[in-house]
Specification:
Length: about 130
């Protein structure tokens, strides 16, 4: 619940640092409020819109975003895919995937070295 505190320029910097820090088969988990593309008369939309007004008032550049606005940020950084996993009230859990092979599924293969407590994780295409 960090990205809504910042403008696009700062979000790109933050996301780029995350992207560079994770492995080739890594992912980043984002938890954020997401604005609907078209407002609907329900409590989730009302709460998210009130957060957006709060961000505008409290933090210069801070704002709530739609999925399209988030996707624009994620693609500019280099993430190959993003998946909204679930929503709890007005908060979405979003998974960002670094997989350089696009949308092709990737699994992790764990290999054990000679020392039984030393493991390596490799990305393997399915």
């Amino acid at each position: 619940w960090i990205l809504h505190d910042w403008g696009d320029k700062e979000c790109l910097k933050l996301l780029r640092n995350c992207y560079e820090a994770i492995s080739e088969c890594g992912k980043v988990i984002v938890v954020e409020s997401v604005l609907p593309e078209l407002p609907t008369p329900n409590i989730v939309t009302a709460t998210t819109l009130s957060f957006d007004v709060g961000m505008l008032h409290l933090l210069p550049g801070g704002k709530e975003r739609t999925f399209k606005e988030f996707e624009t940020l994620f693609v500019q950084v280099g993430f190959s895919a993003f998946k909204p996993i679930c929503r709890v009230y007005n908060y979405w859990v979003i998974e960002l995937l670094k997989n350089k092979e696009g949308m092709k599924p990737v699994k992790k293969k764990i290999e054990q070295d000679s020392n039984k407590f030393n493991y390596k994780i490799k990305c393997v295409s399915r």
